[in-house]
Amino acid sequence: MLELLEALLFSTLDAAPALIFAALGGVLSERAGVVNVGVEGQMRAGAFCAAVAALFMPTPLGVVLGMLAGAGLAAIHGYLSIRWRSDQVVSGMAINLVALAGGTFLLESLYSPNGTPAIEQLPRWTLPLIHGVPLLGALSEHSGMTYLALVLPFVFHAVLTHTPIGLRLRAVGEKPHAVATLGLSVQGLRWGAVLGGGLLAGLGGAVLSTAVLDRFEQHTPAGLGFMALAAMVFGRWTPLGAFGAASFFAFGNALRIGLASSAPGILEFIPQGFLLALPYLLTLILLAVQGQRSSAPAALGTPYEQESR
Amino acid sequence: MGERWRAAVPSILSVALALVVCWIAIALTRDTEVASNAYLQMLYGGIGQWPRYLDGGDLAVIVRPLGEAASKAALLILTGLSVAVAFKAGLFNIGAQGQMVVGALAAAVVGAQLSAHALLHLPLALLAAAVAGALWALIAAALKLWRGVHEVISTIMLNWVAVTLVDNWLVVGPLRPTVTGGHSVSGTAEIFPTAHLPRLLGDISRMNLGFPMALAVAAFVWAWLIRTRRGFETRAAGLGPEAARAAGIPVKQRMAEAMGLAGALAGLAGAVLVLGTEFRYPGVLGAPYGFDGIAISLIGNNNPLGVTITALFFGALRAGGTRMQLLGVHKSFPELIQGLALLFVAGRLVWLALLRRRRTQPASAEVPRA
Amino acid sequence: MSLEIRAGELLALVGENGAGKSSLMNVLYGLYHPDEGDILLDGQPVRFKSPRDAIARGIGMVHQHFMLVPTLTVAENVVLGREPTRWGRLDLERACAEVTATCQRFGFQLDPRARVDTLTVGSQQKVEIVKALHRGAKVLILDEPTAVLTPQEAEDLFRVARGLKEQGHTVVFISHKLREVLSVAERIAVMRRGALVAEVKAAETHVAELANLMVGESRPGQGTVEPYQPPTGEVLLEALALKALGEDGRAVLDGVTLTVHAGEIVGIAGVDGNGQRELAEVITGLRPLAEGQGTLLNRPLSALSPDEARRRGVSHVPEDRLRRAVVKDMSVEENMALGRQGHPPFARGPWLDFAGRRERTQKLLGAYDVRPPDPLLPVQALSGGNQQKVVVARELDSQPKLLVVVQPTRGLDISAVAQVHARLREERARGVGVLLISLDLEEVLTMSDRVYVLFEGKVTGTFTRPEFDEREIGRRMTCAEPAHG
Amino acid sequence: KKEEPPTPTAPAQQPQAEAKPAEPPAPKALKIGLVIDVGGRGDHSFNDAALRGLETWAAGKRYEGGKYAPASAEEVKQSITQDLANLQPPITALNVEPLVIQSKSPEDYEPNLDLLVEQGSDLTIGNGFLLESAVEATAKKQPKAKFLLVDSLILDAENKPYSLPNVRTVTFKENEGSFLVGALAGLVSKTGKVGFVGGMEVPIIKRFEAGYRAGVKTTNAKAAPGLVAVYTGSFDNVAAGKQVAQDLLKKGVDVIFQAAGADGLGVIQAVKEARAAGKQVWVIGVDSDQSHVAPEVVLTSMLKHVDLAIYHACRDLTEGKFAAGDVVLGLKEGGVGYAEVRLDFPGKAEALQKVEALRQRINSGELKVPGTMDEFAAFQATP
Ligand SMILES: Nc1ncnc2c1ncn2[C@@H]1O[C@H](COP(=O)(O)OP(=O)(O)OP(=O)(O)O)[C@@H](O)[C@H]1O
Ligand SMILES: Nc1ncnc2c1ncn2[C@@H]1O[C@H](COP(=O)(O)OP(=O)(O)OP(=O)(O)O)[C@@H](O)[C@H]1O
Ligand SMILES: [Mg+2]
Ligand SMILES: [Mg+2]
Question: For the whole model, what pTM was predicted?
Fold first, then answer.
């Protein structure tokens, strides 16, 4: 039993980081009031660039480049939605489409249609003390990204609630005009948040191609970006909430896989398709039961116009 | 009228710009001749190979491509309208894909499990698809209106649920067709010919009733939205829910109706795919037309007429895009063009301002302060 | 346009709506940028790139619309942008202490830990002032600070202003209430259409002259006081012990009993947030009734829906124009149809009647002098005042029996106000019952035949016209001792 | 970072099909059209096998950035698996010109086949059972064109097989190949736990599973009951395959056979990582020899010689011998098999001997390999 639990935990921890980073990226951008449906595209850019970069340089550096690529796409989003106050949903969706088709095109022109060549994967760390300890052992043997994903939400939470910059971010998402009248730059704050969100989403993508796999694979991230958005909403736009929701999704998936392998008998009664749908169904049911009164930032999605009163 | 055309200008320019950018991309990776040829091939694939026909070729070189373009356009019209209708009611329907999946399945089941006279069978199958799609969408509407669950998250979830339940359970489980011997088949049982959407141009072209039907549906949606009191109320509910409520409009009901209609439209798209060309629910439902619908709707200004024109254009583009492969040009260009067009639509303020600045030399009218 | 502001004075800025008062002040505050001209501070030309520069030079501003982040606490709002930190961490303790200190220095009483959206409007106003003072403002600009305050609270505010002046601060304030301007300011600047048209000493002028300066012509005759006749018309609305709950579950209406007869204007006086809005919502079916009963146009008041209310003959000019009264992305003619989109001339059966709608809209646009009179323009392209005219036109055009109007003249200039008032009186003469809810006590008193005073969801006084007494009504509006400050 | 300069030969085929393919007097290259399914190029398995058969073997070409370059002899030789090394007659380049179309979605299969026929392809190949209906429809529409359908028979509306005069079908006895790798897995496993990872739970993948289970049962009766078969639910989600495999590995499984398309690459990835972490684990590839994906952990691959089937069809066509009909390729015909076992493990020689003995028994018809789970339930292992 303990072993099963450990396998379950391990599997969750291994799969969750990409989702966690991307969800945090969404939170960062949206807390500042900029809708970010382009997470999927930013992840794809991050995954692609990280893998390509890692062909020529150490993988960690590749990850950094992947993050920058995510931020690059986010910059387009920012330019259109902050500088030009375009519709944020439109520009986000556009980024997704361009990243999807453009990624496929670049991949096939540069490498093979299905993926880049293999790169050196991010190393896995064996934690000396707990390795092999029942249950706790699940914490060992992950790449650095997993540990980062366990720490980052708390750091983000602390920054958001306990630092001046966090206070300003929260304020700019709720009432940008108030922030502007205090001589702070609404545009600056939003730019920062959008680019930061892009970095995080790019990191989420980079994790997929450098830690989960050892190459960029053509379908990456296969809808994970939208899952991240769901995690963000489910987590009520808070870093810890998003973290919890993302972990929950990853756990649900791991649970399905674990069930299928450790209790194949179950499949006689519950078809595989049900198990696959389980995490999503659970989320829907949870949302339906608890309700989800809007906890979105008040100014979310409304472009800031200095002179609108 | 002039006003309406003016509203369409950014979209038209965006699409043109996207075409230019992609042409340059091909020219850079290959050469200019290949790029131009590729576009020519795309044109042939989209609207027919007219030169060859005029040279005394077979009629098939025209009607076959037209049939393909029309089938694609029909799907895009329906999913585009699905997204647009929801937008009009203030809802963002990311769930057209899932609604299309359940609609397609319903059509496949009614088409294969029920036997009836053709005059009855086809309408029944279409109806089943519309109802299934509508019900699926109404789950999201109910969650939104009574539990406050944001429709973006619920429709994303419902997409996953539909795809996994249908593709990984129903199609490979209970609905798997009986197969003699160990043959591999994908998808559900084949539907009866009575449920086929009739072919309009004979056997050489796959042009079927789905296309005129989609056009008729678009006209219906347009009339409903623009001409009827209900449509007016729905638009008011979408643009200003509080004001609409104060004006005595049952906002929740109108939103639910619109979402139901959106689902029905996406479901019909599934039916057109199944009853028009596939004749069964395939192992995995076609290209992600439900997601394409979002782009189509946004490029078409969320307006039934704009959506229809956009869908016709991209239907032809995508049907023709396959022919680009004959030149070794990558298969994802039609999607890339679509994505770029949407990006340019999103960024229209930028280049409109640039254009305006060039026209009126000194003072640019309303460039926002940085 | 040039304006001189002297150190240590109390300057008032008056002018019609849209005269450019706020714009000018926003330029001074660095929020807008002048296309031409300079700002001289202590004789030196300065250029404010953003409010940050203005703040650094000791200019503080309290905006016409509150610039507070509702989900943050008082202290967080005040220190935003100049947060005290300890090792990079936001030091909330110190922030609270600092804010408390500032409050004490200037004689405010505020709980620094309270969330702003739980405060009364008066307190929020104070938070705004503290925000400016906390940044060391020597020049304080107050943009229509008294618009939402009770006379008592306003009096309080002016005491603070005078106190600040004693301490050497400069106070510039903008107001439409000429009497209070005269009583507080030393110097008065009058603006019209973006230009300074006069500067006068308060001691040397009077209301009529100021009004003339503002409008540029003699002010439309202030409705002569009509004799009061007790209501005789049939009872249109009879409410008994109404109770309604707010979003947070607290009772926002608590046993309200009132009647409205045909052919009278009943005013509701009260400070913002004391249940007036909810009262209007209950009567128009927008908010469910928790307890109590009543009849509205001969049928029960409970289980009323907005649609049902309209069918009985209730018209509603809501307070929040852009949110509740118009759909701002729809055209003027579509907005004209809103609420009666199913009836001729706006519809024929299930179909919309475009020709009929156009015709009626054009007629109304003419009658109400909406500018520009273009039925195809989106409503949001109209100025606020013209939007309001569209709403009033629509609501009066639907031949109501009972008219519920909330803040009908907010944002209108003097002549438009007079026009709306005249229309309301016309309706009364036609035998319509009018329930007038306004935060502007002056408006309530000039228009109403009877007045109910609301405080914390309860009726704390009823007056008929002969009994009107501004001070007494003001006291009832803040029934208990003044809440804060 | 440098891209190899494209060799200045073999220009991309022009859409010059406007000129009707009047019977060429000179040895004009025959056009062979191939429609591959949505898995696309570069899947390292099924589609790549088809492309190898057509492009590398039949045409002697290498695909690169949308163009063809001639493939070197070395390249061709390397692409031929050991079991075909001694094929008679040997694989040599033919005078054919490939026309390949990748499909973006299932509803594109039919127009894509139409397009190739219109472009004048002398033989049009539909690769994969997903293209069954499309090939059927096109072949009926174009009775003069010739077709090859790989991996499925032509089925009527009731899914009963029938034949069309212009279609050759090729199907494979995957269960026989799977049986042999299953037998090998049973012999290699140390922990006594072996696993199977499938993609979507469709009948054809079930056939792999049944054969594999039978093989394991034959050589390692103890491992058979506990054999875990998990389906990822997709063919295009590498991460899902990896996660499933990780789970199996955590539970002590040390040999995994995958038949899961792109998800299978994730399975290989997971095993590779487990090996890097010091575990003695193996993975068995599918369709093509997948050893090059991760040489250190791919024990062998269940081969399904789609490449050979296509090559044979091309050769028959050039020799004028192409005939319609249903071809079934099993172990005996060399249509399925397993790739060279390059990794060492204790008792390798003995194990391979045992497996080869089983091959003989199947070839002789003595051993019938179950093809469905029902047949497997009735299967009696006879070591
Ligand atoms: N940046 C701008 N560009 C063009 N017009 C502007 C701009 N800013 C303000 N205006 C217009 O200038 C006029 C002055 O506006 P302002 O808000 O200063 O008026 P106000 O005197 O404060 O009126 P109120 O009493 O209603 O507050 C209005 O007509 C407003 O629409
Ligand atoms: N978005 C817009 N598009 C076009 N014109 C606009 C737009 N917004 C405002 N205007 C025009 O600018 C002018 C000033 O509008 P504004 O709302 O500032 O008026 P205002 O002076 O405040 O008037 P009022 O006192 O009636 O509110 C109006 O004539 C209005 O038609
Ligand atoms: Mg103002
Ligand atoms: Mg105004």
Answer: 0.86
